[in-house]
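Let's do one together. I've listed all components of the complex below, 665 residues spread over two lines.
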Amino acid sequence: MAKAKAKGKAPAKKSADGGLSTERLHEMYYHMVMARALDERCWVMNRGGQAPFVISGQGHEAAQVGTAMALDPTQDFLCPYYRDLGLVLAFGVTPREVMCGLLARANDPSSGGRQMPSHWGHAARRIITGSSPVATQILHAAGVALAARVRGEDTVAAAFFGEGSSNQGDFHEGLNFASVHRLPVIFVCENNGYAISVPVSKQMAISSVAARAAGYGIPGVEVDGLDPLAVYQATEAAVARARRGEGPSLLDVKVVRLTSHSSDDDQRSYRPAEDLAAERAQDPLPRFRSWMESQGIWDDQQEQQLMIRIKGEVDDATEFALASPVPDAGTLLDHVYAP
Amino acid sequence: MAMTYLEAVRETLRQEMRRDARIIIYGEDVGVRGGVFRATEGLQDEFGEDRVMDSPLAESAIIGTAIGAAINGLRPVPEIQFADFIFPAVNQIVQEAARIRYRSNGTFGVPIVIRAPYGGGIHGALYHSQSIEAFFAHVPGLKVVMPATPYDVKGLLAASIEDEDPVLFLEHKGAYRSIRGDVPDERYLIPLGEAEVKREGTDVSIISWGMTVNSSLKAAENLAKQGVSVEVLDLRTIRPLDTEAILKTAKKTGKVLVVHEDNLTGGFGGEVSALIAEHALFHLDAPIRRLAGPDVPAMPYAPSLEHAFLVTPEKIEAAAKDLAAF
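Okay, and this is what the predicted structure of the assembly comes out as:
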């Protein structure tokens, strides 16, 4: 199932399971399903008037979980963007924490309810706070890697962004800076083909974000982002290269965007119905489930048990967040400067 | 020992880097060349290429990567070669560095010091002469430091490096070689947010920061010979701002002249004036005056035009004398 088309250096050939144990494959599927279920719950809460804003990662789960599992949560850093629910879950953020962010509760670990939902940050999980202006985090990742090298630490920094962000100056400045200094960074483009409503054909005159890596003398690899094992293998190769001191890589991970840009958008107004249906048919979740079944490591009973478990955890997270306190208005002036 | 403003910058960087291995310096031409003004001369030789690094010519990258490096435990002191070139990095400075502590509910901080030479009078024309402090003083989360003397350079730069929050450290290019002063060898800190009365007086208060403090002191000296006693308050940092010191001198003399090289409208002098109007109006004996650069897009090149733009000691003297006679 796994395949990665290399523009630069090809990753080493691996077995179909990416060398992952059955337990790890189940973990991979768990995170993907949890990301989807939480995301869907967020929309329900939005449409029910309990959450003013939702921004989604549906269709990106295989890319995010596949990448996260090739990184080391004990020493690597993430600089995510707003679609990375699956990524942060796989790096240790809990469903309760996610729902506290959605509902802007005081115990939201990203921001204590200060930022819009999905602006991930978690100091204890090595997830660096992000903003809404896109691509700024790409430079932060390069800086994290620079510090790791100066400090002699075996850390890889990973930046995540959409293909729209690859048009920003910070993307190009970041890839250039990291490649000049051969920094241990991986740049992961979750390429869903749309920057809100603007298709990739109107964003760039080339068909591949991976091709942009050539301008910086680093590998640019196109990856099937609907296959978590392909993503895992491509990431593993990029991470290994970074740890060897050979510098950064760019992964162009092709995904689908199964929802509108956000809860304030309606993609039916700019995407043909047949395209939306075609993307829905490519949903990475049933695809990975089918693959596990074909390998004899998953069955209907396990699926049913997982769904019950996930629903219980999502319900728990929702109830926990609803019962959590909102930020005290008296904290408005806190944390402008260090105490 | 006596040294120039520029030497104070360099020797402070050296002393701090010897003290704290987390400090790294990078920017355009700061390594082998030692900076276009020589502010980092010899530092790469002493501390190596890992700690004193030439960077690509890309200001957003210089600041954006410094933010990441600071989050991962270093104390970066990036240099923007000329303050005029800082604008490509504004998104990283304002939206990222300044907002990270607040937006993360205090879980992340960005201890960086952005050094940038500002100001004119050195034949730098529109794009090597600007005063940029007002843009950044508007931003909560950022600190803006503008020393006038070599002594203050040392104490303020060391304090800025030790600070847990992002600091914009603006060094006046005209001061680099023209301003000399005594600087102790030992390390000392000047707290950010403490103004200093650089000269005591009773008739008029001049409130200024950066290079125009020196011009104001010259004016005050000339006026003393004419029987006008001028107090000069050097704000030293405009964010945080020493409001108490501003109100104290305003109440003392009752006549305030605010002086800055940046152009008048929307300049930081407006903030200083508003504070006095709000909190010390009935102590005033004359309207607050502002003396600033003219509202033209930036400083022109031709010496005649450049001189006409500058806030010189002569202009300050005339304005203060006029105010004293009110």
